[in-house]
Design goal:
mainly alpha; Sodium/glucose cotransporter; 24 helices; 73% helix
C-alpha cells in the first residue's frame, strides 16, 4: 500500500524543493569566491548556527529508519546502540579535541596532517592516506544514504518509477540526489548550513507533532500488551533479557542476526571501541569540516555541545513516537505477513507509520523535513569529500597556483563525481542499511583508531607510521569482506585494529622521528596532553614560561560525565513518549546533575576565543 499524497502535501514538498534551489542560486556568488567560502563558509558563522547545522546533518532519514527498527526491537535499551558510531565522539570534541583541531586553521582533515607531520616525505604520505580514507568513508556513507532515501521514497510517493534494471526506489533516490546536487553546487557550505537550519525547523515541528500523536493514541497499557517484559527498562545485563516468542517470534531471529544476543557484552565492546575511536578524533568527513568552519577554538567546543542537544531531543521524540505506533498498530500486520511466509523490512516502519497516522498538510511538512534531513546529511558528506579532492589532491599535487575560481569549478566536478559513484554503489552493492552501518562503524573505523590516537599523544609517532597504519587499516577492513562476504561485520573490528596498530608501531620505529621544528610547532600550537615530555623539555630552553597541558584528569572526568549527560538526552524524550514516569524522573534528575557539574568543570574552564595560546596558558 502506497501513500496517496494530497495536493496540499505535494505543493508543500514542491515548494520546499524550489526554495532550496532558489536559495542555492542566491548564495552562489558569495559561495564561489574561494575555497574557504565554498567549503567552510569563510569561517564567518557563529557556533550556535554551526552546531545546529552539525546536529541537523546527523538527523538523517537512513539513520532514523534504522534506529526506529532498533527501538522497535530492543526497547529502551536501544538508547545504548548509537554508541556503535560512537555517538559520544562529539563529547570528546566538546571537551578538548574540538579546540585542538581548530587551532590548526586548515581547510580539511588531510591538510591538518602537515600541522602534525610537516611537509616532508612522511608528512606527504600521511596526507595521502587520510585523503584515501576520507574518500572510501565518503563513498560508504553516500551509498548508505542512497539506500535510505530510496526505501523511504518508495513507500511515500505513489508513482511506480521502475526503469529497466533500476527499481522504483533507485529512481526516486537518483532524482532526489539530483536536486540535492544542484543546490549544493550553487551554494557550497552556505547551502549546507542553510538547508540544515530549514530542516531543523521542519523536523522539530514534525517531531513534536508525531510524539503528541503517539502519546494520544498509545496508552502505557496498550504498549505493554505488544512488547516483552523488560522492553521499557534501561537496565543492562550480559544477555539480552527480551523474548519476543509470544508476540513477534521472528524478532528473536532478527536479534540473533544483528549479533546482539549478548547485548551487555556487545554494548561494552561498543563502549571500548567508541572510546578508542573518539580519542582518535573525528574521521575526515563533515564532522571535521564543521569543527574547522567555526570561528575559533572556544566556539569549536561550544558547537559540539550544542549539536548534541539540538539533534537528540527532537530526533528521539520522533523515533519513539514512530516506534510505539508501529508496535501497537502494525504488530498484527507484521505477524500476518510473516505467518504467510512473506518477508518484512523492519527498516520501513518509519514511512509506514507516517503514512497511516499523519494528517494532510502535516504529511507535506514532515516529508519536506525528512527530505531536508536526507539532503543535509548527503550534502554535508559530498561537500566534505569534494573538499578533499580539490584541496588535497588537485590543489596540492596538480595545480597549486590556479585561480580561486578554477578550484571552485573543480569542486563542482568533484561533487558530481562523488554523487555518481554513490549511485553506482547504492544500486549494485548495498542491500541493507544495517550491513553498511556495521561495516563502517566496526571495520572501517577499526583501522582508523591506532594511528590517530598515536598522532595526538605520542611525540615519537611519525608520518611513515601514520601512513602504514591507515593503509593497513583500510586493507584490513576491506579484505575480509571480499574473501568472506557473509561474515558478521562486527568481527572485522579486532582484525583491522590489530593490523593497523602493528603496522603503525613497526614502521614508526623503523623510521626517523619528525624534525624538532615540526614537533615543536605542533606542540606549541595545539598543546595536547600525552607523552610529549622530550618535546616540552626542548621548548622550555627557548620559552621558560611555556606551560604544559596537565588537564588530562579533568578532561577524562568531563568525558565520562558528558557520556552520561548525552545518554540522558536520548532517554528523557523516550520516557516522555512512552509515559514511563520512573524512567523519566530518574533520567531528568541525572541530566540536571551532570549539566550542573559540567558547568563548573567544563564550561567555565573554556579558554578565550583567540586562535593562539600564550606560553602561560
Amino acid at each position: 500500500m502506497k501513500l496517496q499524497l494530497h495536493t496540499v502535501d505535494i505543493l508543500i514538498i514542491a515548494g520546499y524543493l524550489f526554495t532550496v534551489i532558489a536559495l542555492g542560486w542566491f548564495l552562489s556568488k558569495r559561495a564561489s569566491k574561494d575555497l574557504s567560502a565554498y567549503f567552510l563558509g569563510g569561517r564567518s558563522l557563529p557556533w550556535y548556527v554551526i552546531g545546529t547545522s552539525h546536529g541537523a546533518s546527523g538527523f538523517d532519514i537512513t539513520g532514523t529508519m534504522w534506529f526506529v527498527a532498533m527501538l522497535f526491537t530492543y526497547g529502551v535499551k536501544a538508547a545504548f546502540i548509537p554508541w556503535i558510531w560512537p555517538l559520544f565522539d562529539r563529547v570528546f570534541r566538546q571537551v578538548y579535541l574540538g579546540p585542538w583541531i581548530r587551532r590548526s586553521n586548515v581547510l580539511t582533515g588531510a591538510e591538518w596532517m602537515k600541522t602534525r607531520f610537516g611537509t616532508g616525505t612522511g608528512g606527504n604520505l600521511s596526507h595521502i592516506s587520510v585523503v584515501l580514507y576520507a574518500l572510501v568513508a565518503t563513498v560508504g556513507f553516500l551509498g548508505y544514504a542512497f539506500i535510505g532515501i530510496g526505501k523511504f521514497a518508495e513507500v511515500f510517493f505513489p508513482w511506480d518509477l521502475a526503469l529497466g534494471p533500476l527499481s522504483s526506489a533507485d529512481v526516486y533516490a537518483i532524482l532526489i540526489l539530483a536536486v540535492t546536487t544542484v543546490y549544493l553546487l550553487l551554494g557550497g557550505w552556505y547551502s549546507v548550513v542553510l538547508t540544515d537550519l530549514i530542516q531543523f525547523a521542519l523536523l522539530t515541528v514534525a517531531s513534536v507533532c508525531i510524539a503528541a500523536v503517539a502519546i494520544d493514541k498509545v496508552t502505557p497499557d496498550a504498549l505493554a500488551k505488544v512488547v516483552p517484559e523488560g522492553w521499557n527498562q534501561l537496565r543492562l545485563s550480559a544477555r539480552l533479557d527480551l523474548d519476543w516468542s509470544n508476540l513477534i517470534a521472528q524478532l528473536n531471529d532478527k536479534i540473533a542476526n544483528d549479533g546482539y544476543s549478548l547485548f551487555g557484552v556487545i554494548i561494552m565492546m561498543m563502549l571500548l571501541k567508541g572510546l578508542l575511536v573518539s580519542m582518535a578524533g573525528p574521521t575526515p568527513g563533515y564532522g571535521m569540516q564543521h569543527v574547522l568552519s567555526t570561528r575559533n577554538p572556544r566556539e569549536a567546543a561550544l558547537e559540539n555541545w550544542w549539536m548534541s542537544i539540538v539533534q537528540l531531543i527532537p530526533r528521539f521524540l520522533m523515533i519513539t513516537g514512530i516506534a510505539i505506533l508501529g508496535l501497537v498498530y502494525f504488530s498484527p500486520q507484521v505477524n500476518e505477513m510473516l505467518a504467510a511466509g512473506e518477508s518484512f523490512d523492519f527498516e520501513k516502519i518509519l514511512p509506514m507509520v507516517i503514512r497511516d497516522f499523519v494528517p494532510v498538510g502535516l504529511v507535506g511538512v514532515l516529508l519536506a523535513g525528512l527530505l531536508a534531513a536526507f539532503m543535509s546529511t548527503f550534502d554535508s558528506t559530498v561537500n566534505a569529500g569534494a573538499a578533499y579532492i580539490v584541496n588535497d589532491i588537485y590543489k596540492r599535487y596538480i595545480k597549486p597556483d590556479a585561480p580561486a575560481k578554477r578550484y571552485v569549478y573543480f569542486g563542482y566536478f568533484s561533487s558530481i563525481f562523488l554523487v555518481l559513484l554513490a549511485i553506482l554503489i547504492g544500486v549494485f552493492k548495498i542491500e541493507s542499511i544495517h550491513d553498511i552501518t556495521t561495516w563502517i562503524t566496526f571495520g572501517l573505523y577499526g583501522g582508523y583508531v591506532a594511528p590517530n590516537i598515536l598522532k595526538w599523544h605520542w611525540w615519537r609517532f611519525n608520518g611513515y607510521g601514520y601512513f602504514a597504519g591507515m593503509i593497513g587499516g583500510i586493507i584490513a577492513s576491506l579484505a575480509p569482506l571480499l574473501i568472506w562476504p557473509d561474515m558478521n561485520k562486527m568481527y572485522v573490528l579486532p582484525f583491522s585494529l590489530f593490523v593497523s596498530t602493528l603496522a603503525s608501531i613497526i614502521v614508526c620505529l623503523l623510521t626517523k622521528p619528525e624534525s624538532d621544528d615540526v614537533l615543536e610547532s605542533f606542540y606549541r600550537t595545539v598543546r595536547p596532553w600525552g607523552y610529549w615530555r622530550p618535546v616540552y623539555q626542548k621548548l622550555l630552553q627557548k620559552s621558560p614560561n611555556l606551560r604544559a597541558n596537565t588537564n588530562f584528569t579533568r578532561d577524562a572526568l568531563n568525558v565520562a560525565i558528558g557520556i552520561v549527560w548525552q545518554l540522558m538526552l536520548m532517554v528523557v524524550p523516550i520516557g516522555i513518549v512512552i509515559r514511563n514516569k520512573p524512567l523519566l524522573w530518574i533520567s531528568l534528575a541525572v541530566l540536571a546533575v551532570t549539566s550542573a557539574i559540567m558547568k563548573y568543570t567544563w564550561y567555565e574552564t573554556l579558554g578565550p576565543g583567540d586562535m593562539t595560546l600564550t606560553d602561560d596558558e
